[in-house]
Amino acid sequence: IQRKKRVFLQGGVQIRHQTNTLSLNMTVSYSLEVANARFHGFSRLLFRWKGSIYKLMYKEFLVFCAVYLFFSVFYRLLLTPRQQDLFERVALYCDQFTNTSFIPVLFVLGFYVNQAFTRWWGQYTSFPLPDNLMMVVSGNVHGADDRGRMLRRTLMRYANLSSVLILRSISTRVRKRFPTLEHVVEAGFMTTHELKNFESLHSDFNKYWMPLTWFSNLAAQARQEGRVRDDIALRLLMDELNNYRAKCSLLFHYDWISIPLVYTQVVTIAVYSFFAFCVIGRQFLNPEKGYSGHRFDMYVPVFTLLQFFFYTGWLKVGELIINPFGEDDDDFETNQLIDRNIQVSMLAVDDMYQNLAPVVKDKHWKNSLFSVPYTQSTAAETFRPAFKGSTFDMRMSAEDLEIHQPTDVPVNKQYLLPRSSLGDGLDDLQQKTKGILRSGSLPYLMDVLTHHNEEDEAVETKTDAPNNKKAV
Q1: Transmembrane region positions (predicted)?
Q2: Handedness of CA 162, 165, 168, 174 (dihedral sign)
Q3: End-to-end CA distance of the chain
Q4: Which member of 73, 86, 87, 114 has the greatest number of CB atoms within 10 A?
């Protein structure tokens, strides 16, 4: 544990702030391990601890086992035979309610987790990323001098400041990093004059939108100075700014409007009451008394423990993803996203502004047809025929190939066998392998059977004669 003491000046009074730096919680990623489906693929993930279901619910699991063990020992060793009979009747009665038809745990819990996951994904897609905005600023706010550079950097600093302010309001990680606005000033997102302007405007609501208003005013000023060359470019800046503001606002409303508390309470009560009945109803009773379903005394309720693990684990998943702006293992890395956004923004609008490599002829300038090389491990992909559609290789009968003509026209039957992609693929394979297929490509078959009557030919000749004269 590292302890850092820092002194900040606020209103002429020194405030000592002590920060405790603990072990970092990073989002658990296992995408590379499941890139290819293989034997024992998902099973390898079962032995992880960080971000696992074991870490999330092992305390609840131990409590359930301890309570179950207490009633088991109490029933077997501490009760008299008459008291055991009473306990057995209570256990049989409670076992009736462990049926899911009495307490619809699956339905209530499944629907709740589905809603929580939809909300979690919506919050992820609503995170304000400045990528589109910084591209528009870099391409439409001109000037290689200090004034142009200052305008571009200030515009993107305002955008990032707005995201920092909104994340301070919804994320515990960001709040601990920037507990006061003085911390935001010291981090470089805001100047002291901007802080005074920010605090001088009184509002009972969150003022995360103020830097975006500064952005719009500064963009209009840049248009007056000619740094933004036309109104179309200014409109593009405003459109991207509004999209960025909409995401900030959506995050704020996600934090403000939660899933109704009554629904969360219903799900929690349903799961906990179900396993409260299981603690007594799933006890192994004396098999000598011949109770239905109690022929064996296994001491350890394996399937009940599995059921507790699945249902309670599902409830903990809902608890985990209902608010991803906390400090759990799989919560969003908001601080790292802030660092990434401000760094990328400044690189795009400052260091990369008009910093282009010389425009030269590419490697394939003189070749109209060329192929991109493969590595040795991917060379086999060159032998695969190109995909041209799922129906390209569809087999057809002779009736399918027959061309239908209207009844008043002489019948001409044509049977066309279309060339399949298999033939094309073999031709490509023959060219690439330089003669591996010596027999050539598949033949392209066309059999046209035309039967004309002599009278019809004579009629056609007569009708065509005047036209031929006119043509001459």
Answers
A1: 56-78, 90-113, 262-284, 296-314
A2: positive
A3: 103
A4: 87
Strands, DSSP E only, in 281-336?
Answer: none
Mean pLDDT of the region 108-112: 92
- In one-letter notation, the amino acid at residue 305 is L
Report how far Cα 166 is from the mean position of its chain's Cα atoms: 22
Task: Specify whether the CB–CB gap between 162 and 212 falls below 8 A.
Answer: yes
Q: Which token pair is 470?
A: 């006119």
140 CB burial (10 A radius; 0-12, 13-18, 19+): buried
Contact (CB, 8 A) for 392 and 420: yes
H or E element at residue 3: strand 2-10
Report how far residue 321's alpha carbon sits from residue 323's, in angstroms, rounded to the nearest whole number: 5
Cα–Cα distance between 43 and 63 in angstroms, integer? 27
pLDDT digits (tens, 9 = 90+) for 335-367: 999 999 999 999 999 999 988 899 999 999 999
Average pLDDT score over the chain: 83
pTM score, whole prediction? 0.75
Nearest in space to 284 (alpha carbons), one of 270, 261, 258, 303: 303
Place of tokens 């619809």: 104
Three-class DSSP category at 2: strand
